[in-house]
From TrEMBL:
The gene is mmgC_2. InterPro entries: Acyl-CoA_DH_CS, Acyl-CoA_Oxase/DH_mid-dom, Acyl-CoA_Oxase/DH_mid-dom_sf, AcylCo_DH-like_C, AcylCo_DH/oxidase_C, AcylCoA_DH/ox_N, AcylCoA_DH/ox_N_sf, AcylCoA_DH/oxidase_NM_dom_sf. This is Acyl-CoA dehydrogenase. Pfam families: Acyl-CoA_dh_1, Acyl-CoA_dh_M, Acyl-CoA_dh_N. Its EC number is 1.3.99.-. Its cofactor is FAD.
Length: 389
């Protein structure tokens, strides 16, 4: 079937722009920035100028409203060149989806056009030292001063804030009612530069070294009531879960891009590497590995696209399929990267070739935005719930 039967012209245009930027600005710098653990500001500037940060932002707020499928396609292209850059891009969606999905009209009009223009990059502050998989077990506290429209004062520390330091808007999940079970948490928007808000430890990571992951510290950070997401306290856990449902196809797409990148490197290498007088690609055991890698990558890609298309079509119950896509595609990425290293043999274990980076980068995909154990738990819970209906 021709591609434009499935994808909108806009989605294909955005994907092509992403591919061009990935080849021109991302791939050539990936090894250097990985070693130095540096962020590629120039490539993100190119992404903003090409309008790629408008992808998931609705038209009425300065975006192009191309949806989650286009977001997945763009992310895939960027991650194919460098997984770290893929996530640096995708976290802008993760950090701004709470506004898209749960913000007041005023919040959407104020912040989303700035995100779409690339004037404000985003981060998502959910995880803490003691709250990773247990997203409801947060300790960061926000208290309101001076009545129902008063400011909120935030105290505590967040962990694993991706894009921390480069981002301008931080969606911070805080405990606002410790006595409540189901309305304990609220999301509050905090701007870079607000008094008392600082970046703590910058993590020294195994992979995705081209995107910063940091601790964020909130030492009596005062923000106006207007920054309380949705204007109503107690909605934070729901906002977090709804956001993750929409963002997980994007992480899954990072997995597809990472798998595709590893597959391409392994295929080119297998064609060049001569052993026993022949390219190793002529040996059936290597061919079997390449074929399996291609099948996993392709299966993951279409799973992700179908899940993302269902979100765009307005399907209501997206939780299970988003978890299936995230889990399958990121497991595929790790498996494909592992086999790719195997095809490179001893050279694959060395940092002289780009495949070692692909392998290091792939691991986090099975851990962040919900471990793949949490995804399986979500899938199983939903299956059981459906069987009871
Ligand atoms: N959409 C809307 N509401 C939802 C929901 C969803 N998908 N899932 C749950 N809820 C609601 C429930 O209906 C329930 O509401 P009520 O109290 O009104 O009944 C409430 O939320 C609590 O739900 P659960 O009882 O299912 O919650 P739980 O404590 O058992 O946790 C969990 C469920 C799935 C394990 C969840 O904690 C989770 O997803 N954990 C993983 C967290 C995660 O993904 N962290 C990643 C951080 S971001 C990151 O990594 C980004 C990065 O840097 C790149």
């Amino acid at each position: 079937m021709p591609h434009n039967v499935i994808f909108s012209d806009l989605a294909l245009e955005l994907r092509d722009k992403a591919r061009e930027i990935a080849e021109k600005h991302v791939r050539p710098n990936a090894a250097k920035f990985d070693k130095a653990q540096e962020y590629n500001h120039e490539a993100m500037q190119a992404v903003a100028e090409a309008g790629l940060l408008k992808t998931w932002i609705p038209k009425e707020y300065g975006g192009v409203g191309a949806g989650v499928l286009a977001l997945a396609m763009v992310t895939e292209e960027l991650a194919r060149a460098d997984s770290g850059f893929g996530v640096a891009f995708a976290v802008n969606a993760l950090g701004s989806f709470p506004i898209v999905l749960g913000g007041t009209e005023e919040q959407k009009s104020k912040w989303l056009p700035l995100v779409a223009e690339g004037k404000k990059l985003c981060a998502f502050c959910l995880s803490e030292k003691g709250a990773g998989s247990d997203a409801g077990g947060l300790a960061v506290r926000a208290e309101q001063e001076g009545g129902k429209d008063g400011d909120w004062i935030i105290r505590g520390e967040k962990k694993w804030t991706t894009n921390g330091g480069v981002a301008d808007i931080y969606t911070v999940f805080c405990v606002t009612d410790p006595t409540s079970k189901s309305r304990r948490i609220s999301a509050i928007l905090v701007e870079k530069g607000t008094d008392g808000f600082t970046i703590g430890k910058v993590e020294d990571k195994m992979g995705i070294r081209t995107v910063p992951v940091v601790e964020t510290h909130f030492d009596g950070v005062r923000v106006p009531h207007a920054n309380l997401l949705g204007g109503r306290a107690g909605m934070g856990f729901k906002h977090a879960m709804m956001t993750l449902d929409h963002a997980r196809p994007g992480v899954a797409a990072q997995g597809v891009g990472a798998a595709q990148g590893s597959l391409e490197l392994a295929t080119v290498y297998a064609n060049k590497r001569i052993q026993f007088g022949k390219p190793i690609s002529s040996f059936q055991m290597v061919q079997e590995m390449l074929a399996n890698m291609a099948m996993k990558t392709q299966a993951a890609r279409w799973l992700v696209y179908s899940c993302a298309a269902a979100v765009d079509a307005g399907e209501q119950n997206i939780t299970k399929n988003a978890a299936i896509a995230k889990c399958f595609a990121t497991d595929a990425a790790m498996e494909v990267a592992t086999d790719a290293v195997q095809i490179f043999g001893g050279y694959g274990f060395m940092e002289d070739y780009p495949i070692a980076k692909c392998f290091r980068d792939a691991k986090i995909l099975q851990i962040y935005e919900g471990t793949n154990q949490v995804q399986r738990l979500v899938i199983a819970r939903n299956l059981i719930k459906e069987s009871e209906q």
